[in-house]
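Researcher: Let's do a round of design. I'm pasting the structure tokens now; please hold your answer until I've finished.
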């Protein structure tokens, strides 16, 4: 992988990190807001049990999405660490050490495995 390609992937990783941080900021705002602020009521209590259930479900969905974004951010940060620590080996599969296809890295810049090794890993996880 040449320097231009590494720079492109570094920029992609930084863009992804910025996007995820912005998204997590939105979730943080929604978690911080009270029920009263979110629906404009004078009371923070729902009047009907169905409303309470809907509110709880929406909070749970937001938490799960924020958790997913947090895991994705961890993977992006790990890829940036790998890139900065050993730029010469970035883009090589951590299992077989073959070059990861550039199209795969462009689509998934934090990829650490080539397609073949990733398929084998997923097959083993299914068993």
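Researcher: That's everything. Go ahead.
Model: Designed sequence:
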């Amino acid at each position: 992988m040449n320097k231009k390609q590494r720079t492109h992937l570094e920029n992609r990783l930084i863009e992804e990190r910025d996007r995820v941080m912005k998204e997590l900021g939105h979730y943080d705002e929604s978690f911080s807001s009270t029920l009263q602020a979110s629906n404009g009521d004078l009371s923070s209590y729902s009047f009907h049990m169905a409303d309470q259930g809907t509110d709880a479900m929406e909070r749970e969905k937001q938490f799960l999405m924020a958790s997913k974004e947090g895991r994705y951010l961890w993977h992006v940060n790990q890829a940036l660490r790998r890139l900065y620590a050993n730029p010469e080996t970035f883009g090589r599969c951590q299992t077989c050490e073959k070059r990861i296809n550039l199209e795969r890295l462009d689509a998934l810049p934090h990829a650490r495995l080539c397609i073949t090794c990733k398929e084998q890993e997923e097959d083993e996880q299914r068993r």
